[in-house]
Amino acid sequence: MLPLFGTSTGDAGLEAQQLASAAFAFPYAAAYPMQIDLMRAIFRAIEAGQVGVFESPTGTGKSLSLICAAFSWLRLNKARASEGLASGAADAEGEHMTGQPDWVVAHDNEKRRQALLRYETELKERIARAREAQAREKKRAAAQAKKSEGSWKKKARSERTGDDDGDSDAFLASDYSDSEGGPSRMRTAPADDSAFLSAEVRALMAEFEARVTNAGAPRARMRWGPGAEGEDEEPETTPRIFYVSRTHSQLAQFVAELRKTRFGKTLHIVDGAAGAHDEPARSISLGSRKQMCINSEVQRVAARAGAEAMNERCRELAKGGDKGKKRCEYLPKQDDAGKAQMLDYRDRALAQVQDMEDLVALGRELHTCPYYAARTSARQAELVTLPYNLLLQPSARESLNISLAGSIVIVDEAHNLIDTILSVHSLGITSRQVAQAREQIQEYLRRFSGRLKGSNEVNLRLLLQILDGLATFSKKWAAKHAATQSSGKGKGRAAEEILTAARLIKEMGGTLDQINLVKLERYLKDSQIARKVRRPSSLSPPLSLSLFCAHAYQQVSGYADKRQAREARERQLAEGGDDAEARFTPSAISAMHAIEAFILSLANRTDDGRVLLNDETPLVSLKYQLLNPSEAFRPIVDEARAVILAGGTMEPISDFRRQLLPGLEQRFATFSCGHIIPPSNLLATVVQAGPKGVPFEFKFGNRDDSALLDELATCLVNLANVVPHGIVVFLPSYAFLAGAAARWQASGALARLGSKKKVFFEPKNAADVDGVLAEYTLAIDAPP
């Protein structure tokens, strides 16, 4: 039993610390007292289903504490689930049977629990076989490994370059139902051992049986690649841990810490059998195409035209394969052989704890796209690591096709979470983009109006009505402020105005205030119309869009692109350029996507945001700024079992409670611990002046003061004479650092400092940081 409910270990002896450390499977003999307290607090929060803010100063082993506490709870919960004492996926499904007799719900939950346990056993057996296969492969010669690697390779198909419009059916909007329930995607479960029950009992269970398939058997349908979200797949592992941080390097560091623990240890296979260790956690790291794509053509497009163009080219290649179009050689087909290939990747990826680089290497080895394969594998992972945007964007979570229900969400480095949420859900458009979007819709309606279903055309004309209103409003607003400027009343001041979303809709005129934006939002998302009407702009690149509207880029070239794209391609090739680059320049990103995201933002509650208008002659910019982060974060809090917000400096915690988590008095928890450094090892003091009496006033105006820089260098040399080991010096800015380094190089101060200790400068380019840190590590390990 885990020692959770005792007094603080701050005054406990070494033996008590060791016992507590062992209970949490801490990788070292004894955790620090504050680490034990932190692990206990995290465990309590998860067990109670709380939303907690946890503060643990940098250097106190926060990552290990998070890992040990979360995985200890996960292992304990799995043990309870196997005995029928814990809630899981079966109970979560059973919640939909509200109002049915308790014994019917209990019977169904028990049947589902047994089915999920059988599936879990089968999954573990598959992964064990993959683990053994990996161990055997490591013993093979490099030549045989290369031969095995080549078994997945396929010949690339030549790309079609015809001029006909025979495939225009691909651009038709999907059949759309505007009924309350919408189109049904559910499948009826096959007959099972409940057939002997009476007709009345079967009727009670019918609504449940009709919605899902038997969770005990692998799903017959498994899809991957663009448009696969929402498809039936194999059962998800629940509960599980979602670990979120700002950068990919922080995610990789977390995985490295996991490998140090019992939960992430690599199993050593001896003579085809694993040792007596616990199985490592099934973990998957998710990232962007920039980090995970292995297609050289797509990578070239990214280098020349940016990430958005990279995404476009990837989706085009993923959708290819019909009518002679080129298809990505790494993305398996949607058939039995492709499913076997994706499952092989999944089993090998989950066999050991691997970071993103390992997953990319595995994709190269198996000739399988790691970007899509990792997303498919995430459904069966116990730990999913992902960057902020994939968690905070509703559309991104939907595209991943994974549920947070019953899971543990850990947000690390959460001190800037509020600002990140506001940034992710804020976006801007221009009057030029409005004009481009109008042209796209008009051309689309001209071509397809006779073939569209009635509800499709109605919604498209509503969308066109909104675009007309935006265009008219922008012109009137610009003219009004131009008149103000010419009259001299606003001379010298930028034309700006702040409106509520409701006020903007009213100012747009007509009957726009009667349009159901929520219903239109559903149409835009379900029909994916923005993917079908896109047209590249020949005018100028649109504003950089926020992550909020990233979902709108999940499409291939739209009908309106075809002629202009062909002309651009011909011009590029005539000038000796690259075909892929011709199709995907930064200016080819659709205005329609920005407009869609902006309209969706207007459906938010009035008090949740504001629209900022700005005259950027000859354009008018409209920016939606989210003001209430709690509404954007609420779906995560409501769906997850527990949410852990962790960071080194989380104060003021009241901001999280007031701005991000209002109304959660019963679920809200906080914990803050001190540093592992004892007070005797810490000294904080202020040095007012240098050895010669020059005041240390590091103001912007003094950045080029030679006397000040020389005095600082003298002070550092004196400190280096008495400090036995390393010194870290923080300066106000990179510009100040560059000026100081140049001055010290010229005056000889840098040489004097270098004679005492090897000096390293932090590079401004983040890509160079790892190299400097590697040299720093070598200097530390070098003999004196």
From TrEMBL:
Q: Per its UniProt record, what PROSITE patterns does this chain match?
A: HELICASE_ATP_BIND_2
Q: Which residues form the Helicase ATP-binding domain?
A: 21-462
Known role: ATP-dependent DNA helicase important for chromosome transmission and normal cell cycle progression in G(2)/M. May have a role in changing DNA topology to allow the loading of proteins involved in maintaining sister chromatid cohesion in the vicinity of the centromeres. Has a specific role in chromosome segregation during meiosis II.
Q: Which GO terms describe its biological process?
A: establishment of sister chromatid cohesion
Its Gene Ontology molecular function terms? ATP binding; DNA binding; DNA helicase activity; hydrolase activity, acting on acid anhydrides, in phosphorus-containing anhydrides
Query: What is this protein's name?
Result: ATP-dependent DNA helicase CHL1
Chain positions covered by the region annotation Disordered: 134-190
Organism annotation: Tilletiopsis washingtonensis
Key word Cell cycle present: yes
Specify the domain of life of the species encoding this protein. Eukaryota
The family database entries (Gene3D superfamilies) matched by this protein are listed as: P-loop containing nucleotide triphosphate hydrolases
Keyword Cell cycle attributed: yes
Question: What Pfam families would the database entry show?
Answer: DEAD_2
* Cofactor(s) named in the record: [4Fe-4S] cluster
Instruction: Cite the entry's keywords alphabetically.
Output: ATP-binding, Cell cycle, Hydrolase, Nucleotide-binding
Compositional bias, Basic and acidic residues, is annotated for 146-163
GO cellular component terms listed in the entry, alphabetical order: nucleus
Q: Which SMART domains match?
A: DEXDc2
